[in-house]
Write a structure and sequence with these properties.
The chain is of the alpha/beta class. The chain has 10 helices and 6 strands. The chain has a 6-stranded mixed sheet with strand order 2-1-3-4-5-6, with helices on both faces. It is elongated.
Length: about 220
Amino acid sequence: MPKIIVDHRENREIVKELYKQGIDVEIKTLNSADFVMQIKDVNNNVKDLGIERKTLRDFLNSIIDKRILNQLIVMKEHFPLQLLIIEGEENIYAIRDFHPNSIRGILSSIAIDYQVPMIQTKNYRDTAAYLALIARRLEKPRRSISLLIKRKPLTLKEQQEYIIESLPGIGPNLAKSLLNKFKNVKNVMNAKEDKLQKVDKIGDKKSKLIREILDSEYKE
């Protein structure tokens, strides 16, 4: 059964909803984060996730005293993964007399500078549903995400060009030039730097990078 550690000061209605969702809840005093759970990343590594929950009004109040930034800093020190949940359906720009850019600025800073993802929920029930869904990720194997856009090539020629285009700095025209020069994919992959440089628009820098990609040992 998935388990979530909940700070003792958290909303009891959320705790009740988590029980209804079939989540094992442990109430503790947490120094940072409102919720803590373990999840799997795409490589199936188990990691601790710290979650901070703010209602819209509390979020805006925490901007004034910069409490939110301090809380996120502490949370990042304690947990390898972090999440901020902002709860409420009101118009965030109309609740208090804030300039919209102040709110946009803090949201941008959280996402970009602090690199903490955010989820907005409607109410405590919606928050509990998100928490339960995230907690259940521990029970399921994660799948690695491919870095390539998959498509079904129509011809052998397209498959060959597709493979060569995956090399750094190689676009459609250069892929065709390489294949015309070396005749097949294997010869392109085996070509030394000086041979690669004989193809127009492949200089010293690009040829070194290609060989580095092809020759470097793969490490997980």
